[in-house]
Design brief:
globular; 2 domains; single chain; 7% helix; mainly beta
Length: 121
């Protein structure tokens, strides 16, 4: 899937996704409060942008992981399923590098900043 809004011509549509991008959903799962259980997958961080499910033989629906982190736990990423935010935790150097990005919109928040889950309201 692609979406584009901006000046200039639209980028070309991507070609079909390779079969190896299909998720293997036979592995372990874990429960998350007020949600269905989540699948526990393992792989290279680069694969996080290439997973999803084939809806039919010609349509691939990408799906980013809700949570991912490296084996050394040096950083972590959490994608909020109901909001438009991605939370990233890591070292001060990592946060500073993200904050200077010209392609990402980044807002630095304190580790203990309150987070209101609208499902708890």
């Amino acid at each position: 899937m692609t979406a584009y809004r901006g000046p200039g011509s639209h980028p070309p549509a991507p070609g079909p996704a390779p079969a190896e991008w299909q998720l293997d959903l036979s592995g372990p799962r874990f429960p998350v409060p007020r949600r269905n259980s989540y699948y526990l997958l393992e792989g290279h961080v680069g694969a996080a942008v290439r997973i999803g499910q084939w809806v039919d033989e010609s349509f691939f629906m990408s799906q980013s992981p809700q949570f991912f982190w490296p084996a050394d736990h040096a950083w972590c990423v959490g994608n909020e399923i109901d909001d438009d935010s991605t939370l990233i935790g890591g070292s001060c150097d990592l946060v500073n590098e993200l904050c200077t990005s010209e392609v990402l919109e980044v807002l630095q928040i304190a580790p203990d900043a309150p987070y209101e889950d609208r499902l708890n309201v």
